[in-house]
Amino acid sequence: MLKDTHAFAVKGATVNRPANMSRATKASRATNVSRATNVNRASLGLLLSVLMLGGLNVSAQAQDSPTQSAQTQDTQVQGAQTTSSSDQQAAAQVLDLLNQYSSDADWDKYFALYRKDGIFIGTDASERWGMAEFEHYSRPTKGWRYDLTERHLIQHGDVIVFDELLNSPAYGVSRGTGTLIKTDGNWKIAQYHLSFPIPNEIAKQITAEIKAANKQ
After folding, report:
1. Best exposed site among 72, 104, 159, 194 by fewest CB in 10 Å?
2. Residue 49 buriedness (CB in 10 A; 0-12 / 13-18 / 19+)
3. Is the pTM of this model over 0.70?
4. 216 residues of the chain, pLDDT tens digit each
5. How far is the C-alpha of 174 from the C-alpha of 129, rounded, in Å?
6. Could you tell me if 162 and 151 are in contact, meaning their C-beta atoms sit under 8 angstroms apart?
């Protein structure tokens, strides 16, 4: 059998091929090679399609990632808002208790809501009191009543500034503004300013009366 074969080199390798291969056999093999080539081309095309689709998916994921990151940031932001809301609720409760204790003339609990270095600013221009002066004024009284109508709080870290509209049976519409500071884990009032808002229509009349009173 070895004498009937011819040897030829394919990239340095030696392959034996029958010498008396028929034309039909050659044609059949050529057809098979062609079919194999077509199959290989089809497979290559399919592989390229898969790779392209994979690349598109990667690209799509890359485009989606900023949105996913933003959603995470939104969640973080929502978490921060939740914390802020919790702080503001605690601060609002302090202000609610302030109005309750002043109405009950429960001065021990009332002044426990203030910082030791707190300031109270009353409706009279002379009324800027530290805690000692304010207690000296308050304790002999039977208290005062102010009912909440509207309140706004703005938080800056461990500081909350607020303004609120109140209704007083004695004076009508009143306004409280001030500052709370988180102190030893609790919100304490650092400053409270009580005033009587003056409608614009009668502002000149009221201020004229105030000027006249100050001259006396």
Report:
1. 72
2. exposed
3. no
4. 333 333 333 334 433 444 444 454 444 454 444 554 454 555 545 544 544 445 434 343 434 433 333 322 232 333 334 445 899 999 999 999 999 999 999 999 999 999 999 999 999 999 999 999 999 999 999 999 999 999 999 999 999 999 999 999 999 999 999 999 999 999 999 999 999 999 999 999 999 999 999 998
5. 19
6. yes
- What is d(CA 166, CA 178) in angstroms, rounded to the nearest whole number? 14
- For residue 54, what are the CA distances in angstroms to 47, 48, 82? 10, 10, 40
Q: Tell me, what amino acid is at 183?
A: T
Count Cβ atoms within 10 A of the Cβ of residue 32 and give its class: 0-12 exposed, 13-18 middle, 19 or more buried: exposed
Alpha carbons 38 and 52: distance in angstroms, whole number: 21
Cα 164 to Cα 176: distance, rounded to the nearest angstrom: 5
Report the amino acid identity of residue 36.
A
